[in-house]
Amino acid sequence: MIAIVDYDAGNINSVEKAVRHLGFECVTTRDKDEIANASSLILPGVGAFGDAMSKLSGYGLDSVIKDYISSGRPFLGICLGLQLLYEESEESPGVRGLGILKGSIKKIPKKDGLKVPNIGWNSLEFPKKGRLFEGLNEGTFVYFVHSYYLDAADKDTVKAAIEYGTRIDASVEKDNVFACQFHPEKSSSEGLKILRNFLEIG
Q: Of the residues 16, 79, 91, 173, which is catalytic?
């Protein structure tokens, strides 16, 4: 059973619909036992970094997520779910993230002709192609909605990137941990292929 973490963040229902569309059974939950027993775990969400960490901590889900990742089973963070894996964000100074991966979340710089937030489609580059992108070509377009971006400390974990006012680390992979700044569930057939690639890991 695939578990999707419910911590009162936006965009959770669309992820559940996409997983079911691909033919996988899933449950959206904050029940610690359901999460602990899941075959794969997805942390989606849109919203503010500090508010999300407060909710995860308030529900006791921060430690549950860390324990799950330590088990070695597949984990996927989407959008805000990627950002929460890191140590800190300029969006919420002083708030500690989950600290699963090393790096920081920074504000997209303002530049002429570029709007912040970045809302829309962008093409992926694959500096080191990861398992999420098997069967996909460099230049695949995916859908983004974000004002903050990942600057990963370990560039070997970065499997996809885009240019949007700066170099943005768009997807990372380290052992059983996968994450995307973009929304695979909103990225047409290519996005569903990325999501399927994750769901078939294990």
A: 79
Q: Is 79 a catalytic residue?
A: yes
Residue 135 belongs to domain spanning: 2-199
The enclosing domain of 175 has a CATH number of: 3.40.50.880
CA-to-CA distance for 6 and 125, rounded, in angstroms?
31
How does pLDDT run across 136-192, given as a tens digit for each residue? 999 999 999 999 999 999 999 999 999 999 999 999 999 999 999 999 999 999 999
Q: How many domains does the chain have?
A: 1
Q: Which among 88, 91, 173, 185 is annotated as catalytic?
A: 185
CB burial of 125-160 (b: ≥16 within 10 Å; e: otherwise) equals bbeebbebbeebeeebebbbbbebbbebeeeebbbb
For residues 127 and 193, the answer to whether their CB atoms sit within 8 Å is: no
d(CA 154, CA 47): 25
CA-atom Rg of the chain in angstroms: 15
